[in-house]
Design a protein that fits this description.
By secondary structure, this protein is mainly alpha-helical. The protein has 13 helices and 3 strands. It folds into 2 domains: 115 residues, DNA polymerase, domain 1; 172 residues, hpI Integrase, Chain A (Orthogonal Bundle), CATH 1.10.443. A 3-stranded antiparallel sheet has the order 1-2-3, with no helix packed on it. Strand 1 and strand 2 form a beta hairpin. Helix 2 crosses helix 4, helix 6 runs antiparallel to helix 8 and helix 11 packs across helix 13.
Length: 303
């Protein structure tokens, strides 16, 4: 949709300040454009409904707006907005409302009191790896240098539930073997967290760190990235994807092994014995809505 023109000066100025805040927080140009366009559409809706003050934004008004979005026909093809679009739009609107409220009161992310329920059925992961399949996957990593490294990668993605980017950006000084935990500073949500390592995960991490990584590195290298290639270079996104594809073909269990699948799997397994709040903390979620999918998966797979 083309950017809709705003006429209310208060709205225009607030949107400009919001854009500047996103930039100072380190958002990419694409993220700034996406979020401001989403908020622009929301503010235009307010104008069309005779709302001229930001203080008039409340739960009832926001709920009505998203009900309108759900049912609004698409301009270029048949149907209505996808769940993915609605989720992105919700993120933009919630962050804007928090920004506006924070001009008067100190509130954090997720503390606006506004809730926007989106049916996530379309985006739910359709499958996870069961515990026995996880065991098969780990056993597929042999005792070679690459096998030991790959097992360490699985330990990060499944054992610690790291996001793909978090694993790739992990530095060796963020692994505390004395306390048995990993510190994630570069998080998708900008919120740092500490993740405990099980004894087996720590054993896999240590074996790679002390017996493999140093052999892959050039003796003069000062590379601090935890994950590296066999050539001693920092592991890229594509290299990690190829490694997962290779493992997927090796175990041949009829499921495409991806970083996200491993994260979904550990979250579902943990939720069998942990509260959804504890699972959210483990995963680094700032909003429980993002974690509720694991209640669905737990019920689907384990009853």
């Amino acid at each position: 949709m083309k950017k809709l023109e705003l006429n209310t000066i208060t709205f225009i100025e607030a949107l400009e300040r919001f854009s500047i805040r996103l930039q100072t927080q380190g958002a990419s140009e694409r993220q700034v454009s996406s979020k401001t366009n989403g908020v622009n559409e929301f503010l235009h809706y307010l104008e069309q409904n005779s709302i001229a003050k930001l203080s008039q934004i409340n739960q009832k008004l926001v709920s009505r707006y998203f009900e309108y979005l759900r049912n609004r026909p698409l301009e270029t093809k048949d149907g209505t907005m996808s769940t993915a679009y609605l989720l992105k739009h919700r993120e933009s609107v919630l962050r804007f409302i928090e920004f506006v409220m924070n001009q008067q009161n100190e509130i954090g992310q997720g503390q606006s009191g506004i809730q926007i329920r989106i049916d996530k059925t379309e985006k739910l992961p359709k499958e996870i790896l069961l515990e026995n399949e996880i065991e098969v996957l780990f056993n597929a990593c042999d005792s070679s240098l690459l096998g030991i490294r790959d097992k360490a990668i699985l330990s990060l993605l499944y054992g610690c539930g790291l996001r793909r980017k978090e694993a790739l950006q992990l530095e060796i000084n963020e692994i505390d073997l004395n306390k048995g935990r990993i510190h994630i500073d570069k998080s998708k949500t900008k919120n740092a967290r500490d993740i405990p390592m099980s004894a087996k995960v720590q054993q896999n991490i240590e074996e790679y760190l002390f017996n493999v990584r140093n052999l892959m590195l050039d003796t003069t290298s000062e590379l601090t990235s935890f994950l590296i290639t066999e050539r001693g270079t920092e592991m890229s996104d594509s290299a990690l994807a190829k490694m997962m594809e290779r493992l997927s073909e090796k175990v041949n269990m009829g499921k495409s092994i991806t970083c996200h699948l491993l994260r979904h799997s550990i979250a579902t397994h943990l939720h069998r014995n942990m509260t959804i709040e504890d699972v959210a903390k483990f995963l680094g979620h700032t909003c429980l809505d993002s974690t509720m999918i694991y209640t669905h998966l737990k019920n689907e797979y384990y009853g």
